[in-house]
Automatic annotation (TrEMBL):
Cellular component aspect of the GO annotation: cytosol
GO molecular function (one): phosphoglycolate phosphatase activity
CDD domains registered for this protein in UniProt: HAD_BPGM-like
InterPro entries in the record: HAD-like_hydrolase_sf (IPR050155), HAD-like_sf (IPR036412), HAD-SF_hydro_IA (IPR006439), HAD_sf (IPR023214), PGP-like_dom2 (IPR023198)
Organism expressing this protein natively: Cylindrobasidium torrendii FP15055 ss-10
Record-given protein name: HAD-like protein
Short name of any one Pfam family annotated for the protein: Hydrolase
Superkingdom of origin organism: Eukaryota
GO BP annotation list: DNA repair
NCBIfam families documented for this protein: HAD-SF-IA-v3
């Protein structure tokens, strides 16, 4: 049973953008901590480790809980605007595609799949990443942002952006396959009822890859996890067989 739609996370799944984005975010997070008389400071990698998979608004919500501080909605909105401008400019300069993803997208464009991007990040940031890496041509306007596309901004692991994308694309969650690299993103896909393929190729060490592979499979229900995009054909075939088998079992059980 082949899926109708393939839904890709952007950051560190299609585009190597997380390190770049968190470099910019760290500057603003440290400003928040300083203004609240908190001595801790973050660099990009440290921020990525603590808040991977969250957009900046979600990051500030988590930061308030972690440090027991309160930011007004006006303050949060101001930081969101500043973060978006800072990170978008950096991505326009530095973003690169994940290794091996461009040939895969080029081949998929020849097939009858609906290709879409489903991200927690703000739409201008996602668009900048896709444009800089020249993969925007494969998605058209099928780019959905939890921070920008929804009536109420949210962040993965809330499944709202996935459900929104399915509605806009005219497909059911069971007709899709999602591609995610983080716990929060994978949890969002799982909670939306979308079969999941994990991707760990953007993690720098084998230890990090193995740890995330375990999270994606055992905690988030990924059917298969890719180390590199050249594993895509086999991964998609495995998911298709798994979904078909589950559907067959459901029909068989309904007979009794």
């Amino acid at each position: 049973m082949s899926p109708r739609a393939l839904l890709f996370d952007c950051d560190n799944t299609l585009v190597l953008s997380e390190d770049i984005a968190f470099e910019g975010c760290a500057l603003l997070v440290n400003e928040i901590l300083e203004k609240n008389d908190i001595s801790d400071r973050y660099n990009g990698p440290g921020l990525l480790k603590d808040f991977v998979g969250q957009n900046f608004r979600g990051m500030m919500v988590s930061l308030q809980k972690k440090y027991n501080i309160t930011l007004t909605e006006e303050t949060m909105a101001n930081y969101v605007d500043r973060e978006l401008a800072t990170v978008t400019e950096l991505l326009k300069q530095k973003a690169e595609p994940c290794p091996g993803v461009v040939p895969i997208l080029s081949e998929l464009a020849k097939e009858p799949y609906i290709l879409a991007v489903v991200s927690s990040s703000a739409l201008p940031r996602v668009v900048a990443s896709l444009h800089k890496t020249s993969i925007d041509q494969y998605f058209g306007d099928r780019v959905y942002s939890a921070a920008t596309s929804l009536p109420k901004p949210t962040s993965k692991p809330d499944p709202a952006v996935y459900l929104h994308a399915c509605e806009k694309l005219g497909v059911s969650p069971s007709e899709c396959v999602a591609f995610e690299d983080s716990r929060s993103g994978a949890t969002a896909a799982k909670n939306a009822g979308i079969p999941l393929i994990g991707y760990v190729g953007a993690y720098e060490t084998k230890e990090e890859q193995d740890k995330m592979k375990k999270v994606l499979t055992e905690d988030c229900g990924a059917i298969v996890v890719m180390n590199h995009w050249n594993e895509f054909p086999q991964a998609l075939e495995q998911v298709s067989k798994s979904v078909a088998s589950a559907a067959s079992d459901k029909v068989e059980r309904s007979r009794y």
